[in-house]
């Protein structure tokens, strides 16, 4: 399927206009927000929430790729944002904006995520490369309350 760049831009514009701070509050149609503690088992919880949410939305075909991407985003948040000042938790956000699904992980760190050239022999350093490979696009936005939301966009094919 050929992606419509205008649809992608519209989805990102809507997200930015509403603001990640507001979206993380949850209780919006086709939005799931889930707080996660700074611990390793949060990665499994995030994968489970992602798979369940996508299945409930009738988008189970996206669940493997989305769960992999969420795993990488939550792992990065646990690894790099744990000692940042502010909130003591991570927030997972899944949002359906036809024809897209947006996954975001918010953390209290203001450090900008940077993709490294992957070293396929090393045990780490491939996270954002994987996010870039499996999602349509990714990026990050600062939060008004401090910290950032790192997001990945998927085409849901509606």
UniProtKB/TrEMBL annotation:
Q: Which GO terms describe its molecular function?
A: protein serine/threonine kinase activity
- Pfam families for this protein: HATPase_c_2
Q: Which InterPro entries match?
A: Anti-sigma-factor_SerPK, HATPase_C_sf, HATPase_dom
Provide the alphabetized UniProt keywords: Kinase, Serine/threonine-protein kinase, Transferase
**Does Transferase show up as a keyword for this record?**
yes
| Histidine kinase/HSP90-like ATPase domain ranges (all copies) | 37-136
Family annotation (PANTHER family): ANTI-SIGMA-F FACTOR RSBW, ANTI-SIGMA-F FACTOR RSBW-RELATED
Q: State the name under which the record lists this protein.
A: Anti-sigma regulatory factor (Ser/Thr protein kinase)
Q: What is the lineage of its organism?
A: Bacteria, Bacillati, Actinomycetota, Actinomycetes, Streptosporangiales
